[in-house]
Amino acid sequence: MNNMQGYRGTRDFLPKEWKIQKWLFANLREISNQYGFEEYEAPIIEKLELFTKKSGDEIKKQLFNFKDKSGRELCLRAELTPQLARYIVQYGKGLKKPLKWYSIPRLFRYERPQKGRYREFFQYNADIIDSNLKGTAEIINLCIDILNNLGLKSKDFVMKINDREVVDKLIKKYKVKTEEFYSLLDKKYKMSEKEFFKELDKISKSKELKKILKLKDKECLAEIKKNGINTERMEELFKLCDEEFIEFDLSIVRGLAYYTGIVFEAYDKKGYFRSLLGGGEYDNLISDFGGPKIPCVGVGISDGTLPLLLKKKKLLPTEFKNYLFIATIGEVYEKAGEIAKELRAKRLNVYLNTSDLNISKQLELADSLNYQKVLIIGERDLKKGEVTLKDLETGKEKKVKPQELTEIL
RNA sequence: GCUGGGAUAGUAUAGCGGUUAGUAUAGCGGGUUGUGGUCCCGCUGACCCGGGUUCAAAUCCCGGUCCCGGCCCCA
Length: 409
Prior knowledge:
Elements: H1 15-34, E1 38-39, E2 45-47, H2 48-55, E3 64-67, E4 73-76, H3 81-91, E5 99-103, E6 106-108, E7 120-129, H4 133-149, E8 157-163, H5 164-174, H6 178-186, H7 193-203, H8 207-214, H9 217-226, H10 232-240, E9 246-248, E10 262-268, E11 277-282, H11 285-288, E12 296-302, H12 305-312, E13 322-329, H13 333-345, E14 350-352, H14 359-368, E15 371-378, H15 379-383, E16 387-391, E17 397-400, H16 405-408
Parallel strand pairs: 1-5, 8-9, 13-14, 13-15
Antiparallel strand pairs: 2-4, 3-4, 5-7, 6-7, 7-12, 8-10, 10-11, 11-12, 15-16, 16-17
Helix pairs in contact: 1-4, 4-10, 8-9
The structure holds one RNA strand.
């Protein structure tokens, strides 16, 4: 074919695709604002050190890193949280807390592209700096609201919640190896139940633990409590969230080291896709970056999986209406320009024909661009002091005087 | 890092050793030079690259490149 394709793992957003992207962002912003979260931004380029600090040099394999002309080690940001941590360390002293902040960064990861995974992607982030259990509930409710607002209901997704502290207590009580146990939990849904318990048998012979892992949701939590482990925070959290959407699930552990308490992930109910979003409480990140110890909670929603589910559920918008298209016939451009200027002064969406297309072609163009109305300004009519206003949906049209337009439209 | 599949017009596809490389859709032009959507006609437009096998390759073989999946990982 050709070698004009874009770079591996990136996506090209023509107006058609970008409109959907913007629609998604608009939803995220709307709900975030409703929850009183403030938007912020951060540089796409950062010092490499900021990303290797917490995750070690290993992470370099997954980063787009490079040197600037003075030899400084830099990279394209692969996540937002370290930048947020940097902001808090750098500017946090002067900011009243708690902070409820969100952002929709473009992120870059050097990894193999897969379904719903790209090398360049967007990931909505919302965090509460200086948070508590109520804050965690607020973030979870925010996420549920976002998904609801996009048209996803409780039959479509479930918010799975776990508490890392509970997992850690299980690990201690049943004397299993932390890494092995986490890794097994994480893989729970990737294997059959039989396989899972066969694997579990290799790392623990405990009948109690086995029983816990056989149970689900509330029953699982109750069983854990019965075995003397404190599950109070989970119970409190359940009171603060909408039960319709949430579920306790021990297998939600999240990969990263920085989560310390409650963690959560939303999944489509059919289990077609990877997680739709994920987040949790992190208490040590700010201090790890040299700041004070501040409990935080955050969530990330990337544009990898979520649009796949929305598409499957036919929830992506297909039509974006524009308002007024001004078509011209003959030498009327000056007058058309004046009219456009007046209407635009009213903040209306006005497309002014600048082409030499004939009226048929202009109407076709207006139609394909989804304009609701066309104002036809023709030489012949204009001599009579008239223009034609046509409704593209109904096909009806009427003659009006140019000076009436600002009233009518 | 490990693996499976694939590559034909802008897009989606048919063809599976000999085809004027077919179809749909989009684009452009016309039917209709002051009226779009429907309809009709026309035009533009493609076999990823390199090598091999063969009288003959889009088709078979080898290598490359790229794409799409899965595993690992997933902040």
